[in-house]
């Protein structure tokens, strides 16, 4: 996946998977190597869970899938759950794929912003990707990469000699 304007915030969380074959665990989802993959081991559905120590804003998820290499191990339907804890998650997005062969990025929320151009980010402690089904009814799954992308940061004016952007500074910027 090429560089995007959305920052990857996955490194801030603790990653876990529902099952894996030895050598093909959750670390393969973040290693940026298209030749490695998470290989589940067991009955569906399969889970990738990322828990954050504090609430984070998530704009998009990006999955690296390869139907050409993985055949029936390639996910065809994915459900995204999010919430404040593992016990209080809600389904926020359902996505279907037709023989994917690259990075696929999609908004985690379906609620549009005021301008209608993009979707609002979700502010959560936990996000979970649930593999609901594979192509050709495969049992186990391969996911070659997963990125959790935060919202685009505001651009700082180059004319501003003191670019204070924290909430504490913004709160008093116009008081005189």
The computed structural class is mainly beta
* Helix-residue proportion: under 10%
Number of strands: 10
What is the number of helical segments per DSSP (H or I, 4+ residues)? 2
Largest sheet descriptor = 5 strands, antiparallel
Radius of gyration equals 18 Å
CATH topology: Jelly Rolls
Straight-line N-to-C gap: 47 Å
| Name of the CATH first level | Mainly Beta
The second-level CATH architecture is Sandwich
Give the overall shape, derived from the CA principal axes.
elongated
- Overall average residue pLDDT: 88
Q: At the fourth CATH level, what is the homologous superfamily?
A: Galactose-binding domain-like
Taken together, the total number of domains comes to 1
Low-confidence stretches: none
Strand arrangement in the largest pleated sheet: 1-3-8-5-6
Describe how the helices and strands are arranged.
Layout: E1 14-17, E2 38-39, E3 46-58, E4 60-64, H1 67-70, E5 75-83, E6 89-96, E7 103-107, E8 122-134, E9 142-143, E10 145-149, H2 167-171
Antiparallel strand pairs: 1-3, 2-9, 3-8, 4-7, 4-10, 5-6, 5-8
Please characterize this protein's 3D structure.
- One of its GO terms (cellular component) is anaphase-promoting complex.
- InterPro entries: APC10/Doc1, APC_su10/DOC_dom, Galactose-bd-like_sf.
- Keywords: Cell cycle, Cell division, Mitosis, Ubl conjugation pathway.
- A 5-stranded antiparallel β-sheet has the order 1-3-8-5-6, with no helix packed on it. The chain has a 3-stranded antiparallel β-sheet with strand order 7-4-10, with no helix packed on it.
- It has helices at residues 67-70, 167-171, and strands at 14-17, 38-39, 46-58, 60-64, 75-83, 89-96, 103-107, 122-134, 142-143, 145-149.
- Strand 5 (75-83) and strand 6 (89-96) form a beta hairpin.
- It is elongated.
- The chain has 2 helices and 10 strands; from the N terminus they run ββββαββββββα.
- The chain has a single domain (10-171), classed as Galactose-binding domain-like (Jelly Rolls).
- The protein has 176 residues and is mostly beta strands.
- The longest helix has 5 residues, at 167-171.
């Amino acid at each position: 996946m090429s560089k995007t304007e959305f920052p990857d915030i996955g490194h801030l969380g603790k990653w876990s998977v529902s099952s894996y074959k030895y050598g093909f665990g959750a670390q393969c989802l973040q290693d940026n190597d298209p030749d490695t993959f998470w290989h589940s081991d067991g009955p569906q559905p399969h889970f990738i869970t990322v828990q954050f120590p504090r609430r984070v804003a998530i704009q998009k998820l990006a999955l690296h899938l390869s139907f050409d290499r993985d055949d029936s191990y390639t996910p065809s339907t994915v459900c995204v759950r999010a919430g404040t804890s593992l016990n209080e998650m809600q389904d926020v997005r359902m996505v279907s794929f037709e023989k994917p062969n690259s990075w696929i990025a999609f908004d985690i929320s379906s609620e549009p912003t005021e301008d209608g151009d993009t979707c609002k980010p979700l502010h959560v402690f936990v996000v979970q990707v649930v593999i609901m089904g594979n192509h050709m009814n495969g049992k186990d799954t391969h996911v070659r990469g997963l990125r959790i992308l935060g919202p685009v940061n505001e651009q700082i004016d180059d004319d501003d000699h003191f670019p204070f952007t924290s909430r504490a500074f913004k709160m008093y910027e116009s008081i005189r």
